[in-house]
Write a structure and sequence with these properties.
By secondary structure, the protein is mainly α. It has eight helices and no strands. The longest helix has 14 residues.
């Protein structure tokens, strides 16, 4: 059975320096450092299987990053090692809208003229649309959006659902 020889991966001295710098950085994300190690080993002429074994990753991962490196030789090191664009729908709400909704949830409901003691997802959604923060948003989306920025979600509190309306004042 013949031995398969992987496609040589050319790495210039400048690219090698950048890859080694990425690999040594303490603040470099581990995925990026791993990709740099894959390309450095490929540049030394080490094959796919030995690279995968040495790094403890799959051969398909090594092959994929070697291929990506070779496909775009004119791009910078950072561009060649970065994640590919993800498929799917774009974000529905901007970061600014999310921050404004979280700030709204941190306000007292009475300040918005609501006769409740604590916010519910439905009330936050209604208030966000009333203020023009978003054109439309569901209560479920409020739970997802607010869950990103709020350590405590009051609507998940078992007793919360029973404290919705304030008693009207006695005349």
């Amino acid at each position: 059975m013949p031995l398969l020889c992987p496609t040589p991966v050319p790495v210039t001295d400048r690219e090698r320096q950048q890859l080694e710098s990425l690999e040594r950085q303490g603040t470099c994300p581990q995925q990026l450092a791993l990709r740099a190690r894959i390309i450095l080993l490929a540049g030394q002429g080490i094959g796919v299987r030995p690279t995968a074994d040495q790094l403890g990753i799959s051969r398909s991962t090594v092959q994929g990053w070697r291929r990506r490196w070779l496909e775009n030789p004119d791009a910078s090191v950072a561009e060649r090692l970065s994640d590919a664009p993800r498929s799917g729908t774009p974000a529905t709400f901007s970061t600014e809208q999310i921050c404004t909704i979280i700030a709204l949830a941190c306000e007292a409901p009475n300040d918005s003229g609501r006769a409740i003691t604590h916010w519910t997802q439905w009330e936050i959604a209604d208030e966000a649309m009333k203020r023009g923060i978003v054109e439309s948003i569901s209560a479920r989306s409020i739970g997802l959006v607010a869950g990103r920025g709020m350590p405590h979600q009051p609507w998940r509190d078992g007793a919360f659902a029973h404290r919705r309306q304030l008693k009207p004042p006695n005349p």
